[in-house]
Design goal:
Strand content: 25-35%
Number of strands: 17
CATH topology of the largest domain: D-amino Acid Aminotransferase, Chain A, domain 2
Structural class: alpha+beta
Radius of gyration: 20 Å
Shape: globular
Largest sheet: 9 strands, mixed
CATH superfamily of the largest domain: D-amino Acid Aminotransferase, subunit A, domain 2
Helix content: 10-25%
Number of helices: 8
Number of domains: 2
Distance between the termini: 26 Å
Amino acid sequence: MGFFPERGAIWLDGDLLPWSDARVHVCVHGLHYGTGVFEGIRFYDTARGPALFRLGEHLQRFERSAAQYRMQLGWSEEQLAQAVRDVIESSELTEGYVRPLALYGYGNLGILPRQCPVTVAIVVYPFPMYLGADGIQNGIRVTVSPWRKTHTSSVPSTAKGCGQYLNSFLSLSDARARGFEEALLLNQEGFVAEGSGENVFYVKDGTLLTNDAPASILPGITQASVLELARLHGIPSRIQTWIRLEDVLEADEAFFTGTAAEVTPIREVDGRSIGDGTVGAVTRRLQDSFFAAARGEAHADLGWLTFLKERGGNGMDGRRVLRPRSHEAGVQSTGRT
């Protein structure tokens, strides 16, 4: 079995399709220029069945990302949420990863995507711990990347734009080639930005610190969740835009957060141990609290989970389960192969 087990269906512009039928043309605009946006959403196995973690916040960020690229999705948040549920149910997975994707489609190959309708897809697949079970338990080895984070004045760091992730590809591939699990990117000002796909936290003298959008980062939903959990546990925290590399190197603890990475401790940076080189007490407490919340074992009052069983009819009585709000935002039939 490869990375994709191809279980269930893929939602493509309102149709639930077999994996082999979910195709786009090689001349779609997004394939050539990276003109697309995406999201990553996890769902976890809980005592009440599969539950999506902060579905609403992810779909709202998906819409904001699209808006920054002048893209009209053509589907409401409620319709997309329904589509996510339908695809998960078709997969019969109890735990995994959801990838909503929107891109400018087939129409022309000029820089501006004129007459290129927006294609929206939703894919679900199994997704184990991104940086490994050992990384979650014992921490990972990180290197400072020679690639700087793309500045938010060049491309909007607050959007999850497809083309922007070439920056992530370069930094992570360099880190892996040099024997590290992840990269730590500095921004153009020389301060700490983020990992290749994660936000950065560090702990100093019992206080939790992380940065924000002006540092050319993507503000994270897991990042915001950890800050809220810190507040609930009475852990002092502070958002500090400009974090020096020395601040992280001299920290007592450090960790990454993200939908893929969840809460992953950093045990060393370029061979230099963070603290005593083991997972610190604050990191472990927040990590345990995060997984308890994601699995419905704690913090139910925060309203972070969407349980699949708490919904109406499944709408899966045919290939077309939803309809776009306007023809302009739909996809022309000639855009499929």
